[in-house]
Amino acid sequence: MPEDNVPSIKEALQKCFETGEYADMTITCSGKTWQVHKVVVCSQVPFFAKAVTGKFKEARNSCIDLVDDDPSAVDVMLRWLYYGTLHFQECWPSDMCGTKFLARCYKIADKYLLADLRTSASQKLRSRLMDCK
What we know:
Layout: H1 9-19, E1 25-29, E2 32-36, H2 38-41, H3 46-51, H4 57-61, E3 63-65, H5 71-83, H6 88-91, H7 98-111, H8 115-131
Parallel strand pairs: 1-3
Antiparallel strand pairs: 1-2
Helix pairs in contact: 5-7, 7-8
């Protein structure tokens, strides 16, 4: 009997995040664009759910521009929503110090009410600051 090569739901969603396949929503921030999936993003972040429902322009075009956020922190947040783990190294801008980057990740987690991401960013930030002694 042949083996099934069907990916798990987690693997399938991660692939869709990386490729943009089946995306039904666009998030932009400072010139960077992510093709995402409402079921993943809106089910975890009330802000996005509210933005794409009702009579907002975002509801009509399924596009949200995060003008006040740092794009590298947005990338960390979105990867957190799809992977459930931190991806600081992949998203870390080469021109930004680690402490500043982690602080921005903490800030975005706090803003969008992602308690687990906020805790993880806080722990990494605390560890980094303790190493500075």
